[in-house]
From TrEMBL:
InterPro entries: SPL. This is DNA photolyase. It comes from the Bacteria. The lineage of its organism: Bacteria, Pseudomonadati, Spirochaetota, Spirochaetia, Leptospirales. Coiled coil: none annotated. It comes from Leptospira weilii serovar Ranarum str. ICFT. One of its GO terms (molecular function) is S-adenosyl-L-methionine binding. GO terms for cellular component: endospore-forming forespore.
């Protein structure tokens, strides 16, 4: 199933509310959008989210929502498996634990034992901590949607708008909002700001169909990108991860041609390419939880604690995809993130 309007009022049968979050205005706002959900009070989100004996894929079929307050660690330093685009001060945050989608190659299924969605309602504290960090780290590049899809959740949370407005008054903060959604309309009433990057992950149609269930189709994402570009937003497209699917050369070459039939390459801020890569422990857990996915049974290398394709295959994939991209985008706008240093 592929949907452009993912979060319906009947999406969550049960919503757990942490005691510390029950009186927060955002909690009331979110609960009002799910009038049929059963609300269950809890002491801590960890008692529902952290137990190890949970069935991730079973929960994905009927995930529960958990509302909590973040009490520490509002910013994380960027990791080596995420692109920093040349910024010295690269951070990400975790406003939400888990993603509404269920991509078969996603590392989150190896990172968490639960597929339930945890939303931290105290976004204002994240913003305040970022404001403090800005005084020490300038300019600061911040990914706010790396471990989830905030734009897909925007109609429920409204966090993208809050961060865009914050970035608008803090020009030394560069915010990336990464998404596979087709929900640009939820922020289309805002004035574009040059230090907010809307970063769409794009995959070939066959990859979307087989490996990205619940996500909008490629054509829907492309329409959203066109709308964002026409409105004056900074847009990055991310072909990441490049997957070793059958006939990958022709699959990705044809997909790139399709992408640039729909969107003007000269208007893009940049294109990001990434190879398949995953922390070795997350890979091991994901393989156990996704015996149905052949992606975890392909030949892999382990380098510096990261699982990825063999180096020669990785280089070949980048070469093929970059060559096709250069028909539409200048090479200086193409950024590669290999699993290993070249």
């Amino acid at each position: 199933m592929h949907s452009n309007n993912f979060i319906s009022p009947k999406r969550f049968s049960h919503i757990y509310v942490e005691d510390s979050a029950k009186d927060h205005p955002k909690t009331s706002e979110i609960l009002s959008k799910f009038p049929e959900s059963v609300t269950i009070p809890i002491d801590s989100y960890k008692e529902v989210f952290n137990p190890s004996s949970q069935n991730f894929q079973a929960q994905k079929r009927s995930p529960k929502l958990i509302l909590a307050k973040r009490k520490e660690q509002f910013l994380y330093s960027g990791s080596g498996v995420a692109p920093d685009f040349g910024y010295k001060f690269f951070y990400y945050n975790a406003l939400v634990l888990n993603c509404p989608y269920n991509c078969s190659y996603c590392y989150l299924q190896g990172m968490y034992s639960s597929a339930n969605l945890v939303v931290f309602v105290n976004n204002e504290e994240y913003i305040r901590k970022t404001e403090e960090q800005l005084k020490l780290s300038n300019p600061l590049y911040l990914c706010i949607s790396y471990d989830t899809d905030l734009l897909a959740l925007e109609n429920t949370l409204g966090y993208c708008k809050e961060w865009i407005l914050f970035a608008n008054s803090n020009p030394d903060l560069i915010v990336e909002i990464r998404t596979k959604s087709a929900n640009f309309k939820s922020i289309s009433d805002l004035k574009p700001t040059s230090n907010v990057i809307l970063a769409w992950t794009l995959s070939p149609d066959c990859v979307v169909e087989e490996h990205e269930p619940l996500t909008p189709r490629l054509s829907s994402r492309l329409k959203n990108i066109r709308d964002a570009l026409n409105a004056g937003w900074q847009v990055r497209i991310c072909i990441d991860p490049i997957l070793n699917v059958p006939n990958w050369k022709s699959v990705y070459s044809e997909s790139i041609r399709k992408i640039f039939e729909e969107i003007p390459g000269e208007k893009l801020r940049e294109v990001s390419l990434g190879s398949f890569r995953m922390n070795s422990d997350y890979f091991k857990n994901s393989k156990k939880r996704r015996p149905d996915s052949y992606l975890f049974y392909l030949p892999m290398s382990t380098r510096e604690g990261v699982k990825s394709y063999p180096e020669e295959l990785e280089k070949k994939m980048f070469a093929v995809v970059q060559k096709e991209l250069e028909n539409f985008v200048p090479p200086e706008k193409i950024h590669k993130l290999p699993a290993s240093s070249e």
